[in-house]
Design brief:
The chain has helices at 18-30, 47-50, 58-84, 97-123, 137-140, 160-169, and strands spanning 10-15, 36-39, 147-152, 174-178. By secondary structure, the chain is α+β, with helices and mostly antiparallel strands. α3 runs antiparallel to α4 (97-123). The longest helix has 27 residues, at 58-84.
Length: 180
């Protein structure tokens, strides 16, 4: 096994079809590589699972953001009408919950939307202006029809020659070393 070293980020291979990419990801995973990444022109179903993607927690965070928004505005309205400035108008109760529902709904949607928006930016590590695969000649000529698989040099099983042989046996149309 070779060490990653400062001169190598990984090995990048280009494939013609998404099926070829899926097969390559499956074979590289079976051969013991775990530091895999893929770059595709459109989402490929099943690829995330093959690459070892983790479970998406965004729905939970979105729910929490919506709950905080909705409960926060209802709490603010309750505080302001019952404690801070209680006014008895026409004998109505101080906590008129039916009047609080519309702002509560609006702030629930706002809280969920803002949490989802900023959560996706944080979860996807955006904005990312640079990635080492941009140094690969074949990747810089990406035409939107090539599917790329990267075997990272930080993989415990990484061996440059072994990775290149494996990718060549999978009929990659291009194989290239990626430097940082």
């Amino acid at each position: 096994m070779s060490t990653p070293g400062p001169e190598r980020y990984g090995v990048l291979a280009g494939f013609e079809t998404p099926e070829d990419l899926l097969e390559a990801a499956e074979r590289t995973r079976k051969d013991g590589f775990v530091a895999l990444d893929a770059f595709t022109p459109y989402p490929v179903e099943g690829l995330s699972k093959l690459l070892g993607g983790r479970k998406n927690r965004m729905p939970v965070w979105t729910f929490i953001g919506g709950a905080i928004g909705g409960l926060g505005i209802i709490g603010l309205q309750l505080y302001s009408t019952t404690i801070n400035y209680p006014l008895d108008v026409g004998g109505r109760p101080l906590a008129a919950m039916t009047a609080f529902l519309v702002p509560g709904f609006e702030c629930t949607v706002l809280g969920a939307a803002l949490t989802a928006f900023f959560g996706m930016w944080i979860g996807n590590r955006l904005p990312t202006y640079y990635h080492p695969v941009f140094n690969a000649q074949s990747f810089s000529l990406a035409d939107g029809e090539t599917f790329y698989l990267l075997i990272g040099a930080d993989d415990p099983a990484f061996d440059r020659s072994r990775a290149r042989r494996l990718l060549k046996s999978l009929h990659a149309k291009s194989i290239e070393d990626v430097t940082p």
